[in-house]
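Supplementary notes for students who missed Thursday's class. We covered one full example, reproduced here. Read the sequence, then the structure, then the short commentary at the end.
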Amino acid sequence: MKIIKILNNNVIYGRDRDGYAIVMGKGIGFNGKAGQKLQSEQIEKIIRMDSDETTSSFVKDLERIPHEFFELSNSIVDYATTALDTKLNGNVYITLTDHISFAIERQQKGLLITNPMLYEIKHYYPAEFQVGLHATEMVQRRFGVDLGENEAAFIAMHIVCARYNSDMTEMMDTTHLVTEIIDLVEQHFGIRLKATSHAYQRFVTHLRFLAGRVVADGQWESEDAMEEDFVQAVKKSFPKEYQCSQLVGDYIEQTYGHKMSNMELTYLTVHLRNMRKGQQQ
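Structure (token representation):
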């Protein structure tokens, strides 16, 4: 890894055989200079974006934004990857650093913003929302600014996008579709789902992946004869839930132009059945 530019004593912009990257390490930039080759023991973390152009653009942003915000974002990402036990898309450093810097500035100026998706983020992405809450606590400790749960939900949205490799528009569209499906289910069965139950959370997890396929116009893999037997068995065993699945399928096709496959309808039926049983316990 060679140094292209020193950003501060602990962060440099570098390049190796895999491309451009943000490189972190204690004292990695101290007394360094462009063209210098780094030793592996100097490097603690390498951050790669989805393209060299994106990385270069982020370097320009870091020259504009105080480094404290990037360091905080790095700490939040480290916490999120551990708490969620997952890798996050490197672009989250860009979106999160930018968001946090503006969020703190708005709060200091008394410009408060309400997150219209607060309820959905809390209930559809509870783990990511907890990360968002932890992030606001980190902001409070470091900058003395209380961002509140609306901003915690905004931070969670960035984490969700990085976790599932989607952009903010796709994430919001997916979340909106999940809400629409839940509304249809509640109307069909004449019930109010218990958002705090484990059955509800499992059901929402399935809906997130279903909605993600719909928004991305993805297709279920081809079905074989054995799967057809499974479809028929589920239809026969859970007719009320299958009828609800068909209503959801009709709505999705009419609204989004996506025709759900037999297996998608069948798995939705199974999850509906499990959700209803769980709600009754």
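Commentary. The first strand starts at residue 2 and ends at 8. The CA atoms of residues 123 and 195 lie 7 Å apart. If anything here is unclear, bring it to office hours.
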